[in-house]
Write a structure and sequence with these properties.
Number of helices: 11
Mean pLDDT: 90
Order of helices and strands: EHHHHHHEHHHHH
Shape: globular
Distance between the termini: 23 Å
Low-confidence stretches: 145-156
Strand content: under 5%
Structural class: mainly alpha
Helix content: 55-70%
Number of strands: 2
Length: 300
């Protein structure tokens, strides 16, 4: 039996707020991109990059809106830690590339106001995320001692559903791939941005890098947890992000150099992300069915 931290109300509220904002803003960016318009907070040479950022935002929203179903911090940290990376990272990228913002570059009034709102809301959410995360880690772990049906007993449990051995090498490859690409785009956007198989500027490269880094951290965190019951919220997000990104990429098929090495790598990484989510759901549902059968009267 291992002690667990109770999930703080701040994390639940933060995830609900970010989920609502991500759903609306992400849908705006993704849908406008599908029609060939770049509606991002900064000026982009093509509509594909803001469309992918919007797809990731919309894809993660359902998982964030249902995160309150969890009871312990260990069940959500593989989703919350990448969320904090995205909020702080996108806010930093927006400030570092302030001259590219629509409000500075000029253009339609709606997009200029959108860029100002983007920076303001991101700043508030990033500050709130850091504060909620700090408060969560300051919460004491529940003591393993105590009555089984009491608060302490509810916060402890035996090991859940470990990852099968065959799944760990692919998970490590997918997670490391996203992590490495994200770190490269963030730290060296000039070099790594030139390798992206469509046209990007510095802000695009770093914005995509934030999401790639967060995806890598999320996948590797799931690998470190080694327990499917602890990554259930993250499993809701992974396949939706992959599918939403695939739709945007399919619509912009002609804009991507699919025959290049980076193009092939992109297909592999998105496919790996989708396979990770699908396989995780299948394994977890199979374990849930076994548990339900064992708990049924007369079950084995």
């Amino acid at each position: 039996m291992t002690a667990r931290k109770e999930l703080s109300p701040g994390i639940v509220v933060l995830s609900a707020v970010v989920g609502g904002v991500s759903l609306t803003t992400g849908a705006l960016l993704a849908v406008t991109s599908l029609f060939g318009y770049a509606a991002g907070a900064w000026v982009s040479p093509e509509s594909l990059s803001p469309g992918l950022i919007g797809a990731a935002m919309a894809g993660v929203a359902p998982a964030l809106l249902t995160l309150g179903r969890a009871r312990a911090w260990e069940e959500v940290r593989s989703l919350v830690l990448p969320l904090v990376i995205v909020l702080v990272g996108l806010f930093a990228v927006s400030l570092l590339n302030g001259r590219s913002l629509r409000a500075i570059e000029g253009g339609p009034l709606f997009l200029a106001l959108f860029s100002l709102g983007w920076v303001a809301v991101l700043g508030l959410l990033a500050l709130g995320a850091v504060g909620c995360l700090a408060a969560q880690y300051r919460r004491p772990s529940a003591s393993p001692a105590g009555p089984p049906d009491g608060p302490a007993g509810a916060a402890t449990r035996p090991p859940g559903v470990p990852l099968p051995g065959w799944s760990k090498p692919p998970l490590a490859v997918v997670g490391s791939g996203w992590l490495g690409i994200g770190a490269g785009l963030l730290a060296f956007p000039g070099f790594w941005g030139a390798l992206v198989p469509w046209t990007v500027n510095r802000a695009d490269a770093q914005g995509l890098g934030v999401w790639a880094l967060a995806l890598g951290v999320g996948v590797l965190a799931a690998l470190a947890e080694d327990d499917l019951t602890r990554v259930r919220p993250a499993l809701r997000a992974v396949p939706l992000i992959a599918l939403a990104a695939a739709v945007v990429l399919a619509v912009h098929f002609r804009s991507v150099d699919w025959t290049s090495g980076p193009g092939v790598s992109l297909v592999a990484l998105v496919t790996g992300l989708l396979a990770t989510g699908v396989a995780g759901h299948w394994l977890l549902s199979r374990a849930d069915r076994r548990t339900a059968t064992a708990n049924r009267p007369g079950g084995a």
